[in-house]
Structure formats: structure tokens, C-alpha cells
Amino acid sequence: MCALPEKRQAHGETAAHVHHKCPKAKAVWQVVIADWNEKTGDQVSTADLTAAVAGLRTCPPGVTGEARAEWEASEPAWRLLHAVTLHEIYRARCRTHAAYHASPQTSPKATSTKHVVRRIKQRLQQRIEYEHEKAKYARQHSHEEGPMAAFQRHWVTPGAVVITKQGPKVALLSPPQNKEPPLRGGVHLRTVAIVEPAKGKRGTSAGGWCRRPTSATMEARSPGCMQ
Q1: Mean pLDDT of the region 111-119
Q2: Residue 211, pLDDT score
Q3: 102 vs 64, 107, 129, 142, 207, CA distance in Å?
């Protein structure tokens, strides 16, 4: 987000600098990745240039079997978060650049870490609503198998989205819903239920989902994380 010509000449305005090494971009990634790790149990490093610029994660060591499958299922959520973060960092850079080179020179707007993170969350919410509507449409009008189950597997189960009465809400970059740690030695269950109101010739329908995570998955997640 450096706008000054002398700064750009000193380090070169490369993709690595604009999206990761710039102090302002680094501050955004620290918030985004810390929240991602907390919500999903992943172990992405803020110092990992490959993850920040290219979006390539490395599976945490020791994660195998069902836990590995769950980690892989979170890839769509990570890809969306990564793409939106890159886009908003670049937009903030452009606002900074335009303000510095304007005549007369002005102060850039909405370029602080707080503002950029807020825009990331807003864009995530828009895309989550689109993905949910796409899954609902596929369930009603196509022959695809389990579109809503796929939405659950890729978005809700990893901890990126929660389902509310108002519809899907992005959980990333939001305060955790449950701050109380689970009981030690207890059985932890993930549950979700949904009721579809009657529409046209289709009557009211309801469904539920319940699963006991594997011990490896629970160890990877932060205390109190339950969907």
C-alpha cells in the first residue's frame, strides 16, 4: 500500500511486497490468518509468503485419515478468504496511491487494517449467500447429488459459516459464538438443523445433521468451537 515513489523504487512494487511484505498488508494478514486458524483449527503461518500470495496451504503434521479429509474439505473456504483478502489489500493500495498523487494531495480513505478487514468480511458474506443460493437451486432444479450436504461439508463444518434463522452468516472475522470451553472428557457433537418452509407444491421439509468429530480434529480446533 506504499504510495510514495521513493518507497516503491527502494523495494520494487512486486506482488510479494504489495500483498504480503508491505507493513499494512502484513497487518491485515495477521488478523485474517489468526482468525482463520482459530475458527478452523488450521496452522497457516503469517510468515508463509506462499500461503499469503499464492494461497497454497500446507497440511499440519500428524493430520491423517478423516482429519486430513476434513482439512482438505476446507479448501473452498480458504480459497475464498485468500482471494478476497488479496483483492481488498490491492484496492486499499490503489486508494492510497490515488490519494497521494491527487492534486491537491488528500488523505486516503478506508485503508486502515480495521477498514480493510471490515470490507473483507462484507465481501465474504456476499459470496457465502451466493454459494448457499446456488446449492439450494441445484437441489431443486438439477440432478446433482447432495448440494446442500456439500455446502455443509465445505463451509459450515470447517467453521467458516454458521446457519441462522436469517440464513447463512460468515463466521470468519466475527466474534466466536461460544466462548466457554467444552467440558474436559466430555463427548463433543457438531449439530445443525434446517427447516425449509412450504413453497408452491412442495410442503414444509426439515433435516438435521449430527456428528462426533475425531479426536485428531478436536485437538486441532480451539476450545469452544462447535457448530
Answers
A1: 94
A2: 66
A3: 54, 10, 37, 51, 56
> Which three cell numbers, joined as nine digits, stand for 213?
468429530
Domain residue extents for the chain? 14-220
pLDDT(188) > 70: no
To which residue does cell 446442500 refer? 148
DSSP string computed for the chain: ----HHHHHHH---HHIIIIISHHHHHHHHHHHHHHHHHH-----TT-HIIIII----PPTT--HHHHHHHHHTHHHHHHHHHHHHHHHHHHHHHHHHHHTSSS----SS-SHHHHHHHHHHHHHHHHHHHHHHHHHHHHHS--S-HHHHHIIIIITTTSEEEETTEEEE-TTS--S--SPPPTTPPP-EEEEEEEPPBTTB--EEEEEEE---HHHHHHSPTT---
Q: What is the pLDDT of residues 52-79, one digit of tens each?
A: 999 999 999 899 999 999 999 999 999 9
Tens of pLDDT along 124-148? Answer: 999 999 999 999 999 888 776 789 9
